[in-house]
From TrEMBL:
<dbReference type="GO" id="GO:0015424">
    <property type="term" value="F:ABC-type amino acid transporter activity"/>
</dbReference>
<keyword id="KW-1003">Cell membrane</keyword>
<keyword id="KW-0813">Transport</keyword>
<dbReference type="GO" id="GO:0005886">
    <property type="term" value="C:plasma membrane"/>
</dbReference>
<keyword id="KW-0547">Nucleotide-binding</keyword>
<dbReference type="InterPro" id="IPR030679">
    <property type="entry name" value="ABC_ATPase_HisP-typ"/>
</dbReference>
<dbReference type="InterPro" id="IPR003593">
    <property type="entry name" value="AAA+_ATPase"/>
</dbReference>
<protein>
    <submittedName>
        <fullName>Histidine ABC transporter, ATP-binding protein HisP</fullName>
    </submittedName>
</protein>
<keyword id="KW-0472">Membrane</keyword>
<dbReference type="GO" id="GO:0016887">
    <property type="term" value="F:ATP hydrolysis activity"/>
</dbReference>
<dbReference type="Pfam" id="PF00005">
    <property type="entry name" value="ABC_tran"/>
</dbReference>
<dbReference type="InterPro" id="IPR017871">
    <property type="entry name" value="ABC_transporter-like_CS"/>
</dbReference>
<dbReference type="InterPro" id="IPR003439">
    <property type="entry name" value="ABC_transporter-like_ATP-bd"/>
</dbReference>
<keyword id="KW-0067">ATP-binding</keyword>
<dbReference type="InterPro" id="IPR027417">
    <property type="entry name" value="P-loop_NTPase"/>
</dbReference>
<dbReference type="GO" id="GO:0005524">
    <property type="term" value="F:ATP binding"/>
</dbReference>
<comment type="similarity">
    <text>Belongs to the ABC transporter superfamily.</text>
</comment>
Length: 254
């Protein structure tokens, strides 16, 4: 079998005395969409942040394409010694955040081009061509010269997705990509995520949107207080939840 893009084994992470991840394991095979659900504070963002080396961890292992990348630290926010390695992992596991995080002083095209040009040192001309194509793909090809403040939240989030795609990552990590959006704008972003799933992109999506999780995922993981409480195919998890905690969670979120 193909080596998974991301594999997390028995990961433990604490902030001081607060144990946030208590032995989490999770696998994202190539071309699969994994959704991560759970109440606020269950450790979903922390797990994503560990995976792309924004956080260290204390025990367990994270593998990127079979290679251990685990950064075992002290919780003191020391960065791993090899910055090149960190950059490579961040590039390959591109993250999309709830709060788009676009540069306000740059046009949309400049936002999408920034990291591939300055971080990866790719030729400007090639990057511009790719950036325009990705902006087209997410349906805002006409917004290249506009500034973020002039766009709706849904358009800004789609620009953030184009920016992540322009890094040509091996996987996309989404942290509540639709949570900051009004319901009608949410659907624009869901549509883009669905299209990416249909293309066979490897993705891990933290979401509160159970309908999207049901529609796009190959596998759903329910995190409860830092542990995987239940996981499986979306039809099983949403159709016939086994644990009482998941049943409660689902009835509270619908
Ligand atoms: P979720 O994304 O599922 O809502 P988080 O991973 O953000 O959960 O947070 C899990 C727990 O870790 C929460 O109790 C949160 O307060 C705590 N936490 C998150 N980040 C930090 C941090 N940088 N320092 C201390 N505690 C944190
Ligand atoms: Mg979170």
């Amino acid at each position: 079998m193909d080596t998974p893009v991301i594999e997390i084994r028995d990961l433990h992470k604490a902030y001081g005395a607060l144990e946030v991840l208590k032995g989490v394991s999770m696998t994202a095979p190539r071309g699969h969409v994994l959704s991560l659900i759970g109440s606020s504070g269950s450790g979903k963002s922390t797990l994503l942040r560990c995976a792309n080396l924004l956080e260290d961890s204390q025990q367990g292992e994270i593998l990127f394409e079979g290679e251990p990348i685990t950064w075992k630290g002290t919780g003191l926010h020391r960065r791993p010694a090899d910055r090149k390695q960190v950059m490579r992992i961040r590039t390959n596991l591109s993250m999309v955040f709830q709060q788009f995080n676009l540069w306000a002083h740059m046009t949309i095209l400049e936002n999408v081009m920034e990291a591939p040009v300055t971080v990866l040192g790719r030729p400007k001309k090639d990057v511009e061509e790719a950036a325009r194509a990705y902006l087209d793909k997410v349906g805002i090809g006409d917004k290249c010269d506009v500034y973020p403040a002039q766009m709706s939240g849904g358009q800004q989030q789609r620009a953030a997705i184009a920016r992540a795609l322009c890094m040509e990552p091996k996987a996309l990590l989404f942290d509540e990509p639709t949570s900051a959006l009004d319901p009608e704008l949410e659907q624009e972003v869901v549509k883009v995520i669905k299209a990416l799933a249909e293309e066979g992109r490897t993705m891990i999506i933290v979401t509160h949107d159970m309908r999207m999780a049901n529609d796009v995922s190959d596998h759903v993981v329910f995190l409860h207080q830092g542990r995987v409480e239940e996981e499986g195919a979306p039809a099983d998890l949403f159709g016939a939840p086994k644990t009482e905690r998941l049943q409660q969670f689902l009835s509270a979120t619908v």
